[in-house]
Amino acid sequence: MNANRIWKSAILCTIGGLFVAVIPRANAQSGHVVPTVEVILSKMAQARAENRTQLRPYSVTRNYRLFDTEKLATRAEVIADLTFVPPDRKHYAILKANGMGLGEKIVRQML
After folding, report:
1. Rounded-to-integer distance, Cα 7 and Cα 1, Å
2. CA trace torsion 97, 99, 105, 110 (10° rounding)
3. Which residues fall within 8 angstroms of residue 40, CB to CB, at 6 or more apart?
4. Using N-to-C axis directions, what is the helix angle for 37-54 and 3-30, rounded to 10°?
5. Residue 62's closest CA among 48, 81, 76?
6. Could you write out the DSSP letters of every residue in 69-80?
7. Which among 18, 71, 81, 90 would be 20 to 30 A from 108, CA to CA?
């Protein structure tokens, strides 16, 4: 499991835990049945699986610009092609990089 998926799982578990912690108080007053943690996590997993079936491949060209502190002049500009093919295939190519080399380095780390 890569670091990105670990972070996503940790965030979902935290949100799920917060959701579960808040529900009992609200539902105790209204008399509704409180779902168990297992039910909530199961429905979250089901929703995630359904969302993945909705993903479509795409390609896009993006233009990234880094500015000086006054935002008057562009210090670096990087143009990149990005391609995503579900469920997890991602590819990028730097088409053009102008200005300071740090701009391209930052964009590569982001992508």
Report:
1. 10
2. -70
3. 16, 19, 20
4. 130
5. 81
6. TTSSSEEEEEEE
7. 71
Strands 89-99 and 74-85: antiparallel
Q: Which two tokens stand for residue 104?
A: 């391209």
Which position has the token pair 């979902």?
12
| Residue 57 identity (one-letter amino acid) | P
How confident is the model at residue 1, as a pLDDT? 47
CA atoms within a 13 Å half-sphere pointing along the CA-CB vector of 69: 0
> 45: which 2 tokens?
């997993």
* Nearest-angstrom CA–CA distance, 32 and 20: 14
Which pLDDT tens digit goes with each residue over 58-97?
A: 999 999 999 888 878 889 999 999 999 887 889 999 999 9
Interval 6-47: pLDDT, tens: 656 656 555 555 455 555 555 556 667 888 999 999 999 999
